[in-house]
């Protein structure tokens, strides 16, 4: 999300992008041991409080992939969040098999990069394999709760979806756009991580237009 944040700053928006607990480290197990939906949701609320403490009273929440679930929850439940949006959102996902497979692949590569021994790598991967389903169940429960409230959204809601996305079903984004009456739906000829892949420039332009239109309406 750094590229998106920098673009917004260049266009006179303040940007704040907290790192979800467990993310951003060299140890894949940190996500399972340190993170979780309740902790991540608390971080969202803490981020809103941080912005309010710095004099921001019109807040927009955006999220990529996992972050999209919590950005949507913020749009649904936090009054100070006036609008928001998602990129590669799994908010209607029921099957997280692709996420599970991708995480196991990521973990294996992470240990190879760190050059841990084969024994340590095997033991760590076995531990992750034993823990990941519980985490995914918690995430799925949160996702279901958020998905059930989509029809209640009456704030501007941006949807960006890569049509080559292998992580989440691109068709799900179309269903979200049908449910959310205020949706601003955009498709891109790209994969999952829209904020840095071949679509990122186009995405940035669309998000900026989305926000500037809100600002003009509120002026």
TrEMBL record:
Cross-referenced Pfam families: Hydrolase_4
Protein's UniProt name: Carboxylesterase
Record SUPFAM superfamilies: alpha/beta-Hydrolases
Active site location: 65, 165, 192
Coiled coil: none
Matching Gene3D superfamilies: alpha/beta hydrolase
Family annotation (InterPro entries): AB_hydrolase_fold (IPR029058), Esterase_lipase (IPR012354), Hydrolase_4 (IPR022742)
Molecular function, one GO term: carboxylic ester hydrolase activity
Site (Important for substrate specificity): 113
Domain Serine aminopeptidase S33 residues, every copy: 6-185
């Amino acid at each position: 999300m750094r590229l998106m944040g920098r673009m917004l700053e260049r266009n006179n928006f303040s940007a704040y992008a907290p790192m979800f607990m467990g993310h951003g480290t060299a140890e894949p197990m940190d996500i399972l041991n340190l993170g979780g939906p309740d902790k991540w949701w608390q971080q969202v609320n803490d981020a809103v409080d941080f912005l309010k403490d710095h004099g921001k009273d019109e807040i927009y929440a955006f999220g990529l992939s996992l972050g999209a679930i919590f950005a949507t929850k913020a749009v649904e439940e936090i009054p100070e969040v006036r609008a928001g949006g998602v990129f590669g959102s799994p908010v209607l996902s029921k099957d997280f098999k692709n996420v599970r497979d991708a995480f196991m692949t990521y973990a294996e590569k992470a240990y190879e990069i760190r050059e841990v021994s084969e024994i340590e790598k095997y033991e760590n991967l076995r531990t992750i394999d034993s823990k990941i389903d519980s985490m995914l169940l918690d995430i799925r429960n949160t996702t279901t709760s958020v998905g059930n409230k989509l029809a209640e959204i009456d704030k501007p809601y941006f949807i960006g979806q890569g049509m080559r996305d292998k992580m989440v079903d691109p068709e799900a984004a179309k269903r979200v756009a049908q449910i959310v009456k205020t949706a601003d739906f955009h498709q891109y000829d790209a994969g999952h991580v829209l904020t840095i892949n071949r679509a990122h420039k186009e995405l940035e332009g669309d998000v900026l237009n989305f926000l500037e239109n809100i600002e003009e309406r509120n002026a």
